[in-house]
Amino acid sequence: MVTELVCGCDVGSTYGKAVIMDSTGAILGSSIVRSKMDPESTAQLAIETAGEEVEAFSSIGGLAYLVGTGYGRNYVPTCDLNVSEISCHAMGVHLTNPAVRTIIDIGGQDIKGIMVDGDGSVRHFSMNDKCAAGTGRYFENMARAFEMDLPAFCELALQSNSPTPISSQCTVFAESEVISLLAQKKRPADIAAGIQASVSKRCYTLLKTAGIEREVTMAGGCAKNRGLKRAMDRMLGFELVTLDTDPQLMGAIGACEFARRKALASKFT
């Protein structure tokens, strides 16, 4: 029997993600690839890379249903439907952990606070898309200022119990402030912890606008930042839920679930 495959593709500003499921909702393949200049090329690479893990995958055109999401969702080739990343992240987190009610999603260039209902739909959301401070790009810039790779920088803050306050909110000014602090021979781990604390305050303000209801989790690539998670735990006064599935795939998982439901519905219409 031929396995019917559906796919969700999340084309972000920094990474492209894809998830392939069968009709039962089982995840058969997934991928995370660095975004190219052309979002269509990013989407194609992400889907084909995920397809390498799936024996029944033949081509993008052979998918039963394909949903695109993310900033480049309009460029996903042969896409059947586009769904907002807010709805897709809510659904993806809901499928992964139905107990979660609040999501802080940190992407490459924006931050979103999302409240989720018990069925995975969006109740409220707030979004910061006017400034890159606190986003994935921000952390990449900070890692360069420390002359470290990103994973090492994210771990550095865990060595500090005395964060150095970072006053600047703007990415450019904050980077200049950090370089100045490093030149003053301030302890790098304390500066790194101050950066994480500054971002956690920014996220907390956004979450309060959307509403905070437990359980709370982080999604997106920055959810892998343990220094930020510790700062968020301290800011909230309780621990964030850690997702069992890669948090960077939440948008693609949600998009794939929407594709699965559309494919099933089409059989009865």
Mean model confidence by pLDDT: 93
Tell me the fraction of residues in β-strands, as a range. Answer: 15-25%
If you compute it from the alpha carbons, what radius of gyration comes out, rounded to the nearest whole angstrom? 19 Å
How many alpha or pi helices? 8
Span between termini = 22 Å
Q: What is the second-level CATH architecture of the largest domain?
A: 2-Layer Sandwich
Structural class: alpha/beta
Detail the poorly predicted runs.
none
Total individual domains = 2
| CATH class categorisation of the largest domain | Alpha Beta
Output the helix-strand order: EEEHEEHEEEHHHHEHH
The gross shape turns out to be: globular
CATH topology of the largest domain: Nucleotidyltransferase, domain 5
Percent helix, as a range, is 25-40%
Give me the count of strands.
9
Can you summarize the main beta sheet? 5 strands, mixed
Strand order of the largest sheet: 3-2-1-4-5
How does this structure look, described?
With 269 residues, this protein is an alpha/beta fold. The protein has two domains: 5-88 and 249-266, ATPase, nucleotide binding domain (Nucleotidyltransferase, domain 5, 2-Layer Sandwich); 100-242, Nucleotidyltransferase, domain 5 (2-Layer Sandwich), CATH 3.30.420. The protein is built from eight helices and nine strands. The strands form two sheets. The protein has a five-stranded mixed sheet with strand order 3-2-1-4-5. A four-stranded mixed sheet has the order 8-7-6-9. The mean pLDDT is 93.
